[in-house]
Design brief:
Rossmann fold; ATP-binding; six-stranded mixed β-sheet; alpha+beta
Length: 465
């Protein structure tokens, strides 16, 4: 087995000479075999090896003995050791998380701390081929989306380096043979025998049947996982061509907008991938409540000939189709109400959507961004008015000759019709529109009062909040 693992490490360049390598060791046969393999590999080319271990505080004295066992093993094999005990029960109570999730978060938190403390390049985990097969089977049971069925990554970024899994090329049986042939001791965690945990149920009920059908199932699944990851990476790269035709905005609110007809010109596989990339952007990371059913709802919306439709997605996300325009937004219809506020220098107002506008005198004429407006003191008749748009609104846009309809500005800026009524229109007492908050500025910057004071407005929109 050691030759297989060493070849696997070399093929994928999982560990390189001179690196600092942390090995996560629980004391069980998998991680013990891993640590032993790494000590032997260290003889072939030099790297700095350290063992890290966590007692989750769930099995009392037995777990503390596991921690001591790993330390003794590390000392015996000349490996630097770093271990800790954590209070999973208290963390679980404080966060409301399940036992396994709470333990995992605390474990990885410690691993991250150790990676950063030692400037480590690699954290080596003991997951093996059977673990990978279990993971893929679980993913297939939970999701119909191909991109969700990839198994555990062979490597992924973590802390200041990456996590690697060099035992994915071997089975549990091979690991046990390796341990027996070398008379290596290990610890047993009885919680691994419980089938009320989903993974353990797959391990004890599903995997034996699969092993009967094909004893090398772990090799096939790992090959599938590597290929799936490669192909998904390529499809994601190609889907960027779709996203070139998608408008992503945090101008006023975080929303996405595109043409239905243009979107449909791309292959179906790229449409589906682009859909999920859009969701990743909006949700920051993929929402666990999104399933293939939401994907099919979206694809049906693309095919539907009705000019106006909308979908409700988890987390308050709405997908709205208006003729050829499709918009993904978290905007709430209750925001679409008219408003009218008086704004004096030194004061601020809060708008119905939670945004705010503040005014103050300033001795600096600088406008650092689109959300700051500066004008000369003589140019305005105070107090200012901050209101929602009105039919027929026009403004003289700075840098342009003549005036332009506010409605046309919204169209040019691709602002969704449903939120145009929420955007602040700033006027002085004469009714002259000075600023369309965050979009277009009016008024002249040239004039008599070049030394100030200047009237400074700042618009903090909902996206900033």
């Amino acid at each position: 087995m050691d030759h297989v693992v060493h070849s696997f490490i070399s093929k994928h360049q999982l560990i390189r000479p001179g690196q600092t390598v942390l090995a996560a060791v629980s004391g069980g046969p998998d991680s013990t075999a891993l640590l032993h393999l790494l000590t032997r590999l260290r003889e072939e080319f030099p790297f700095h090896l350290k063992a890290v271990s966590v007692d989750h505080g769930l099995r009392g004295e037995e777990a503390r003995e596991d921690l001591s066992f790993v330390q003794e093993l590390a000392d015996q094999w000349g490996v630097e050791f770093h271990g800790t005990s954590v209070d999973t029960a208290s963390y679980k109570k404080a966060t409301g998380k399940g036992t396994q999730e709470a333990a995992r978060e605390l474990r990885y938190r410690f691993f991250e701390e150790q990676m950063l403390a030692h400037g480590a390049d690699v954290l080596v985990m003991g997951h093996h081929g059977d673990d990978q097969a279990e993971t893929v089977m679980m993913q297939m049971a939970r999701s119909a989306r191909p991109e969700a069925v990839q198994g555990m990554p062979l490597r992924r970024p973590f802390a200041c380096g990456e996590i690697v899994r060099p035992l994915l090329c071997v089975s549990k049986e091979q690991i046990l043979h390796y341990m027996n042939d070398r008379s290596l001791p290990s610890r047993h965690d009885p919680s691994n025998d419980r089938t009320d945990y989903t993974r353990n149920a797959f391990r004890h009920r599903v995997m034996p049947f699969l092993k009967e059908q094909n004893p090398r199932i772990h090799e096939h699944v790992q090959a599938f996982s590597e290929r799936a990851a490669e192909e998904r990476s390529y499809i994601n790269e190609q889907a960027q061509k779709v996203l070139e035709h998608v408008h992503f905005s945090e101008n006023v609110e975080k929303f996405v907008q595109f043409s239905k007809q243009t979107f449909k010109t791309f292959p179906l596989a790229l449409q589906r991938t682009a859909f999920h990339l859009i969701l990743n952007y909006l949700y920051v990371k993929q929402n666990e409540d999104i399933s293939y059913l939401h994907e099919e709802m979206f694809m049906n919306l693309l095919r539907d000939e009705k000019p106006n439709r909308s979908l409700d997605f988890p987390g308050g996300l709405k997908v709205i189709r208006a003729y050829d325009e499709i918009t993904f937004t978290f905007a709430d219809k209750k925001q679409e109400q008219s408003y009218h506020f008086i704004l004096q220098p030194g004061a601020s107002v809060t708008l119905p959507d939670g945004s705010s506008m503040e005014a103050e005198w300033s001795w600096s004429p600088e406008e650092p961004d689109a959300f700051t407006y500066i004008c000369e003191d003589y140019h305005v008749n105070l107090p200012l008015i901050v209101r929602s748009r009105k039919p027929g609104d026009r403004m003289e846009v700075r840098g342009m000759n003549g005036s332009k309809k506010v409605k046309d500005i919204f169209i040019d800026q691709k602002i969704p019709a449903r939120i145009r009524g929420t955007l602040p229109v700033v006027t002085d007492q004469t009714g002259e529109i000075l600023w369309l908050g965050g979009l277009k500025k009016g008024g002249s910057r040239d004039g008599r009062s070049s030394t100030g004071p200047w009237l400074r407005l700042h618009y903090k929109n909902k996206a900033d909040a």
